[in-house]
């Protein structure tokens, strides 16, 4: 019997407060703007992945997601496998006693416990977990920054799920993507009272994939150039300062305005892309009512490429925010639930 080598990991979902939307290089997933996210810690918002390899496996690499075989021949998955194998080969070349794992077929088994491809950043947690599981299997000495460079090639937003807490993704300038990596703005422990309420409006697969949608936006939206070159760079600085100063009002305002800006460029895409629905708009209204009642910003909504809302708030306002949401949206069609969530404490 040939030996089977195995390693497991989990990676969390991250939800951007400054959105990534647009690629300057679709092959390497190099973005047209930097972005910033908060990594969520809830145990059922993670991808669990086991990577194994063995000389006894069938010759093809294989990936099982939620029990279903996936196509691994795509350029993104292949790029991750190739880069990780190359790093393992370097290790093996420097130490002949190491088993030749890089030459064995890989088998990856992943489970998401949240809706896949419904705008809940499933590809982010998925590729982050895949890359870290293989890196662990290969016993690579790579840093989270190095792994973020690889995960980015699987899915752009995945690079941010290699870190916990408040995480930026620097767009970089190099054509080879060497400087397009994630970095930690602050650990979760720096601002531990941050919470996220997740409103699962719909668990259906989204109509327009992010990759297709963002490239159509880049090609057709007249709002997009100023968003990428002026609005986002200014907001990246404002957001990092707000986090450093634990200034929720600014954090919340910039979060909501950037979500609105992203969805405006979607609507300005031709043909237009609609990710928000009536329940999403009702959620925006509830946040406005909460903030008006409080006389300041205590809740902030954001929406990714789908109708589900994420509402950030501080623990001290839990009753007000979560309570009003239940009262206001509890009987709406399509309303699936709300839960409070802590920010992920580290990249584990
Ligand atoms: C984000 N989204 O920053 C933004 C906000 C969706 C809206 O990152 O083509 O799945 O795999 O690089 O990472 C979704 O895009 O796209 C995304 P690819 P990805 O979280």
Ligand list: ligand 2P0
Query: Mean pLDDT, as a whole number?
Result: 91
Characterize the quaternary organization of these chains. Answer: single chain
Unreliable runs = 333-340
Distance between the termini: 33 Å
Total beta-strand segments = 14
**In CATH terms, what is the fold-level topology of the largest domain?**
Ribosomal Protein S5, domain 2
Give the tags.
Alpha-Beta Plaits; 2 domains; single chain; globular; alpha+beta
Folded structure, characterized:
The structure is a single chain. With 348 residues, the chain is an alpha+beta fold. The chain folds into 2 domains: 5-189, Ribosomal Protein S5, domain 2 (2-Layer Sandwich); 194-329, GHMP kinase, C-terminal domain (Alpha-Beta Plaits). Helices cover 37% and strands 20% of the residues. It is built from 8 helices and 14 strands. A 5-stranded mixed sheet has the order 1-6-9-7-8. Strands 2-5-10-11 form a 4-stranded antiparallel sheet. The radius of gyration is 20 Å and the shape is globular. Bound molecules: ligand 2P0.
